[in-house]
Write a structure and sequence with these properties.
alpha+beta; about 10% strand
């Protein structure tokens, strides 16, 4: 399968990276660590650029692109550690009023999970719950349920435990199994972006940091760490791109598993390359590790994915 990007796809990826570099650079990232409230101005700017309406038909005011392009955009968001319920915005544009244009921030909740978690509870305008299996999707105003704030491993992603049943009628016309699959895939795309970024951070530090009169990147142990990181990131990227093309449930399961492993292990190895510097609060490496831990628990954990893949392999 050929994963070479078209000229339009490269332009989309590069344009997204340029937009995020300009509007969510390191200074804004560190400011968000201290104050994780979402920047609604940035949210609307993303919407104006077509971030959320990417897959809506042009007749409905969208861009008219597909799942592979959404994966490219979410990969760049993961690379920049952009916070917020971005996957929900992608999947629910057109289904919930105001999402495509950035006027409303919607959180997607897995109602089949126990407990049910919600991201950015203080910032969201609506919650959309996906029932187990082929059950319906339904949305609720935050006031209609109880959101109990929880300590989050990721300082950029406030969490809440959501209890109670919303009173709003189910959303119609939504394919819940498809939404679950695509939520897993787009989350995996974010993990790939983070995994690729930690490769860059590790290699850059290994080139600049010297010990015993030589750059530490010349040491064999450091070379092996960086090479292993690159292999994990590229394998995960290939799996995610393939799953975006096929849309197959097992392909997405495998892609999410590989992406989670790449994001978590690359962040750990990046910390190792940085040494004591990597463990300091001022470094950004720990933010990638914490985000990777969080995303690995969403839309398919490793043990569940391994069991599903093993069942498929054994018939």
């Amino acid at each position: 399968m050929d994963f070479r990007l078209t000229a339009d796809q490269r332009a989309l990826r590069d344009g997204t990276r340029e937009l995020l570099a300009g509007r969510f650079g390191r200074d804004r990232l560190r400011a968000a660590v201290d104050d994780p409230a979402l920047d609604r101005g940035l949210w609307r700017e993303l919407a104006d650029a077509g971030f959320f309406a990417l897959r809506l038909p042009e007749a409905d005011g969208g861009v008219g692109l597909g799942l592979p392009e959404a994966v490219l955009v979410l990969e760049e968001a993961g690379r920049a550690l952009l916070p917020g319920p971005l996957v929900a915005g992608q999947l629910l544009a057109g289904a919930v009023d105001g999402v495509a244009g950035g006027e409303r921030i919607v959180v997607l909740c897995d109602a089949a999970a126990d407990p049910v978690y919600g991201e950015h509870p203080a910032d969201c305008d609506a919650l959309v719950f996906l029932e187990a299996g082929d059950g319906p999707a339904y949305h609720s105003a935050p006031a209609e349920v109880t959101c109990v704030p929880l300590a989050s491993v990721d300082p950029l992603t406030p969490l809440a435990r959501v209890t109670g049943r919303p009173r709003t009628a189910p959303l119609t016309g939504l394919d819940v199994p498809r939404l679950r699959r695509e939520a897993a895939l787009l989350t995996a795309a974010q993990q790939v972006g983070s995994a690729a970024r930690t490769v860059e951070l590790a290699v850059d530090h290994a080139r600049r940091r010297t010990q015993f009169g030589a750059a530490i990147g010349s040491f064999q142990a450091v070379k092996h760490l960086c090479a292993g990181m690159l292999v994990r990131a590229e394998l995960a990227r290939a799996a995610v791109y393939a799953a975006a093309v096929t849309g197959d449930a097992l392909d997405i399961t495998g892609a999410k598993l590989l992406a989670d492993e790449a994001a978590v292990h690359n962040a750990r190895d990046c910390l190792q390359v940085h040494g004591g510097i990597g463990f300091t609060w001022e470094a950004d490496v720990h933010l990638h590790l914490k985000r990777a831990w969080l995303r690995a628990e969403m839309w398919g954990r490793a043990r569940e994915a391994e069991e599903r893949l093993a069942d498929a392999l054994t018939g």
